[in-house]
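Handout, section 3.2

Students often ask what a structure token actually looks like in practice. Rather than define it abstractly, here is a full record for IPIL1 protein. The first block is the sequence as you would receive it.
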Amino acid sequence: SWSIFEERILYQLLVFLQPPPRHSFRLELYGGTHLPERCSNIRVVLECTCLRKIGNSPCFLHPSKNNQTAQQSPLLQTLCTGSYLDVEEIACWVQNSVQTAWEHLPQWQHWQLTVLPSSHSCRVLLSGPSEIQLCAALVFAVEQGFP
């Protein structure tokens, strides 16, 4: 969605998170009655890949003959607290990625990117040569079920 407020154009973008290969997301319900309202109820489940070949990727759950310890999931190490997605970690990671990527775009010389503080989304403000500012909020979501 988008709206105009004074000298700002506000964009709100819904970003659906997809699990990487060898992972799946499971929404945990409160007593089976309603959906969770926060990301802390989205469990990351490691999938066994022993019976199917996915490139040269080892199974996270079971050790191989060459490596007798189970592999660590980068997703669990980076964006999770325990086995659950951590929306604050996701927001911080996306904010850092946007800031780093901005410097590689040709527009960065004409527009200033400011990452606005937010612990549950990625909010950025773009100020350019005109008086109009662009504000974008990336809100994270997970689809229930399988696409």
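Discussion prompt for tutorial groups: Strands lie at 2-5, 8-16, 23-27, 42-46, 80-81, 84-85, 112-116, 121-127, 133-141. How would you have guessed this from the sequence alone?
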